[in-house]
Amino acid sequence: MTVQQDIQIPAIEIAGLAKRYASRSGGTVALRDVSLTVGRHEFVCIVGPSGCGKSTLLKIISGIEPPSDGLVRRFGEVVTEPTPDIGMVFQAPVLMKWRTVLDNVLFPIDALGLKRRDYIDKAQALLKLAGLEAFAKSWPRQLSGGMQQRVALCRALIYDPPFLLMDEPFGALDALTRDQMNVELMRIWSETKKATLLITHSVAEAVFLADRVLVMSGRPGTILEDIRIDLPRPRHTGMRTEAAFMEHVRHISSLLGVHD
């Protein structure tokens, strides 16, 4: 049985992770004793104060940065370098203004040296799923911020990675567009069921999206609590006013030192 066939192996497994940065003043400990797992079809959100090491954690998971201590396994294999089995979505869409929407979605295929013709139908299907089918030949400047972020999500999904890492993907959007993108992401996730780890500063966003919310401490960052969000799916914006939703928000906010 291969690793990919063994559904018992989590998408991500982190044990005793630490990250230290050396400096003339003695260095900085960004992460300390971080341990967590993400199941193969789980949506997990991480919340924590600014500077607690959330983005550093994603860089280590992706293989961009090495840990100082501990280890990261993706589908049972120790992470030592970046690999194409992870789709990344950043806070800014980072679309290439000289490429059409369709060409932006296909950029990873071009970069990996794969045959573009084998992925055209997949790219068009993703754009349809994201409600962007009519904009395939448009330029990024012709799209709203939310539409550009949907293009970035399609780009991350184009080569069918089994795992998505999302670093505050909606942080730059206005509140209304952000809520709309939460619903859109939930819809796309329900179709793909990709293992997903998303960083956000919005507690309400984390509760709305996640199967579990991991709350991090201030620097050096570690996991304070792993909270299962027992809200039914599919979720809708009306849930944000329900008692169970608001109780999760209150509890997580209190862990972060945010009070009414």
UniProtKB/TrEMBL annotation:
Q: Which domain of life is it from?
A: Bacteria
Q: In the UniProt record, does the keyword ATP-binding occur?
A: yes
- Gene3D superfamilies associated with the record: P-loop containing nucleotide triphosphate hydrolases (3.40.50.300)
One of its Pfam families is ABC_tran
Name all ABC transporter domain ranges.
Answer: 12-243
Q: Which UniProt keywords apply?
A: ATP-binding, Nucleotide-binding, Transport
Q: Name one GO molecular function term.
A: ATP binding
Q: Which PANTHER family match?
A: ALIPHATIC SULFONATES IMPORT ATP-BINDING PROTEIN SSUB, TAURINE IMPORT ATP-BINDING PROTEIN-RELATED
| Record-stated family | Belongs to the ABC transporter superfamily.
Protein name (record): ABC transporter ATP-binding protein
